[in-house]
Structures are given as structure tokens and as C-alpha cells.
Known about the structure:
Blueprint: H1 3-17, E1 26-29, E2 37-41, H2 43-50, H3 54-64, E3 71-76, E4 80-85, H4 87-99, E5 110-114, H5 129-144, E6 148-152, H6 161-174, H7 184-197, H8 199-213, H9 217-240, H10 257-269, E7 273-276, E8 279-288, E9 294-300, H11 308-321, E10 327-330, H12 337-349, E11 358-361, E12 367-368, H13 385-403, H14 409-429, E13 437-438, H15 441-444, H16 452-468, H17 485-495, H18 497-507, H19 511-530, H20 538-561
Parallel strand pairs: 5-6, 5-10, 10-11, 12-13
Antiparallel strand pairs: 1-2, 2-4, 3-4, 7-8, 8-9
The structure holds arginine.
Amino acid sequence: MNIRQSLEQQLALAMTQAGIDQPSPMIRQSQRAAFGHYQANGVMSAAKRLQKNPRALAESVVAALPEPSEFTAEVAGPGFINITLTDSYLAHALSKQLLATKPTVEKPERIVVDYSSPNLAKEMHIGHLRSTVIGDTVVRVLEHVGHTPIRANHVGDWGAQFGSLLAYLDEAEASTESAQLSDLEAFYQVASKRFREDTAFAEKARAYVVRLQAGDPELKALWQTFINTSMDHGQRVYDQLNITLTRDHAMPESQYNDDLQPLVADLMELGLIEKSDGALCVFLDEFKGKNDQPLPAMVQKTDGGFPYLATDLAALRYRHHTLKANRILYVVGASQQLHLKQVIAVARAAAFIPDHVMTQHLPFGLVLKEDGKPFKTRDGADVKLIDVALEAVDRAKNLLAARSQGLSEQDSQRIAEVVGIGAIKYAELQKNRTTDYIFDWETMLAFEGNTAPYLLYAYTRIQSLIRKSSLTMTDPPTNFDLSAPQERALALKNLQMSEALDTYLDDYQANVLCNYLYELAGLFMSFYEHCPVLSAPDAVQISRLQLAQMTANTLKTGLELLGIETVERM
Ligand code: ARG
């Protein structure tokens, strides 16, 4: 339970005692939240309902509150209740938090998180950054608060494009050019070019698709070679970006092949299928196209093949039946909104998943270049994600070389990796998820402002402070002395981490967490400026060191949840 929830609970009790039948206190942080001020609403609406004087009612609520050890409460304005946490409560809560284990949810759920999910025909490119980074934060936070997230990497490993790739791979292998697979992107470009320009090749490619789908063992083996190579490429990107996905989390499209025919048969039996130009479709009232024309959700193509939507329906069934999910989250671009709406609506209409299994699309916008145009190389190709990651590390290394001296080569490489990769991820997470954003190296790598380098630097400042003190911190923690306003503000901020997590879990906007950490680091900086630590008498020094240490822990945990590592110096 976070501070706000605890206040709400106590207030609701007092409201009941003051004769309010349906107590609904709304607690929000007041303007001066940094000092532990909260404001409670809910008395005024109750007063209206009960036809009572709001101020008098508020007074009786305050009188019914327990002995004020945690907070002081007073009536303000037309009937608000202002609540201020006491120093002793903050100090006590802080000591408890030092010892506390992780927060836990009351009802742990199994939550499938569909994220990253690249197409294996090509190499991962900048367009996959958002789903991968946003989704990885979702699973990290869910895990942290006690849910069981199930990582579902719905990789695209099936479909017509594999025809040309396999036809080309076959040729290349025969002429010992198989090394070309090391550059998957170039391989894809050549194969598609051959497909467009060489009719004999195109024919072969089509025949390969048919043979592959019919389960031809030779082609299956060739396909597996290709998929393995592509998965290795992807894993390299995940490792470089410190993403928690592994091979075990791949739930590829092909895994649902055998489920597709029965799925269509089930829809048929339910009377949901209509034939439209030879294709099998589901028409639902809620989907209308141009001129109010009914919009089909196609589940089988005219040539008998199964489209993307059919696979997603099968995946949804699997997630319910086999994975036993309570909730399914899709971290997928905003451009696929309609697709996912259709998938979910058809699944609900067919009762493939029960009502209590929740589904939610977490859409995101595009990554744009500085000029606001789509992110492409000069010749119009996609920018490979691995190249972006390596460039980030390079840039960070150059910046750090100018700032910090006396680090070993090994240390500077390590720090550059943490700072560079952290910068890309933080820049991503700190933006509103739903809108497009501009990828800008300079802003994300700045040591000032709401960036990863700034937070990482704040963390190392604390570590260096702690290293410099000759005092050893006592365990269990001492009492905190919070007499300076900067100490109080920093203490309170530390205690509000769980509030930040709760707010994040409302709709998975990671900028809530970023802003929280940024404010925390800012409060530490002003604490450090105003409250001398090393020159203070022992008792004060210990309290301040503890507060610093706690801030470092909070920062580290927060960054970890964003998938960002920390370093001890930089
Ligand atoms: N592979 C798809 C793409 O690259 C994304 C898959 C998203 N997940 C899903 N269940 N449809 O666009």
C-alpha cells in the first residue's frame, strides 16, 4: 500500500464515523507535495448529499481521525482537509523502507506481454526499438510488483516472403555464398530484387512456399537454417540493448500453423463466417469501412492461405488455453490498431476467450529523424537496430573521454555501454508512448536535463560520496533526522516510488517513472548542495549518508525497471 492509499483508508474510516454513508475520499498531492502535503476531497460532495455544512462536516471528520502520529490534518477552504505527514512518520517509514522487501500486488496475475515481435525475414531495424524497449519495461515492472509476466515474442517466421529467401538461400548455398546470411538485410534486398526481376526465380520462390507449407522436409530444414540465423541476429540486438528476451520467449507465427484450419472450422460452426470474393471473412457490425460499408476480418484467403489475423486469433486462444493468461497486453505500433481491434472483437464474438480475460493494446507512434521524416538510411533502407546500438556506445565513449580521466580501457568501455544504451532507452521511455518522437543523439546523450546520463551521473555522485566517508553505516538503520527542508523533500520522494509504480501500471506510460527518477535526482542534487555530509557531526552524517544511500537504491531500482544498468563511477 502506498502513502496515498494508506491515507485514503484512514480517511474513509473517519468519514464513516462522522456519519458519511458512502465515504469516497479523493486524496491528491497538493502543490507543495514535496513537503508531504496532501489534500482530501470528498467531504463537500457528501455534505451536499446530506445537506450539511461542509466545513462543520470536515471538522467532524478531522476529529474522528486517529491520534495524529503519522500526519496532521486541518480543515481548509470550503471543506477540504489538508494533510501533512509528520517528520517522525517520514523517518519511521524511511527506516522501514530500508529494510522492506519488494512491493507485492494483492492478486498476482499471469500476464502475457506480446512485444518486440519482429519479422524474421529481415534484420531488426529502428522501427522495432519502441516495442522492444517499452515492452521490456512492462515485463520488468510487472515482475517487480509480483505479477507473472509471460514474454511472448510473436516473431513473423512464416509467409510468402520466405519463398524468395529460401530460393535464394538454396542458390547461395550451392555456390558456397552462404556467408551472405551474416548480413541478413542485404540478403533480403537481393532476394526481393531477384523475385521482382527474374520470372524463373519468382516461379521457383512460389513453388517453395507451397512445398514449405506442405511440410516438405528438405525445405523445412532450409527454412530452419534461415530462421536460426535470423534469431541469432535478433538475440545479438537484445543482448546489446540489455533486453530480457531470450530464445525461449519466441512464440513464432509458425507454431500456430496446425491450429488455423480448425480455427476457421470453429468460426464456421458458430455461423460467423461469410464468403467474400472467395475469401472467408467475419463481418462484425462494429467495423465499418468507407461509405459505411461493412469491413471484413479475413481469416482465410482465396488461395487457401491464412492471413496475419488468423494467426493472431490462434495465438490468442493459445494464450488463454495453454498459457492460462488472466491478461494479454499487446505492445504493438499504433498503425495496427484496427487489426488488433478486429482480432479481439472476433475472439470475443466467438467466445475464444472468456470475458474475465482482459486484453489491452498499448500502441506507440513512430521514431522520426531530426527533420521529422521517417528514419531511413540515405538510400531509403531501414536503419539496423544493431548499428544504432553500436553508434550509441561509440558516441558515449567519445563524450566520456572528454569528461572523465584516469579510467582503464575496460572501465571506459563498460561505462560507455551503460551510458550509450541507457541514453537510447531512456529517450524512448521518457516520451509519451502514443505519439511519434524525434530521435536526437544530442539531447539523449546530454548530461543535463531529463536524460539517462544525468541520472547515471547522479547515481555515481552518491556512490562517490559514500566511498569518501569514513563512517560505516549501521544496520539496522538509524533514525533519520529530517530537519532541513531538502532532507524532508528527498525522504518523501524516496517514499513515493510505489506511488509512481502504481500510476505507471494504470496505463503503462513509462514517462511517469522517468519523471519520478528525474525529480528524485534533482532533489538529491539540491540536498547535496544545502546539507553538508562529510563535514557534519557523526549522527547527522550517518542520517544523511543513509538518505543518500537510500536515494541511490531507489535510483538503481528505478533504472533497472527501465532496463538501464548503473555504474559506480563515470
Ligand atoms: N511481426 C509484426 C510486425 O512486424 C508485429 C507483431 C505484433 N504482434 C501481434 N500479435 N500481431 O509488424
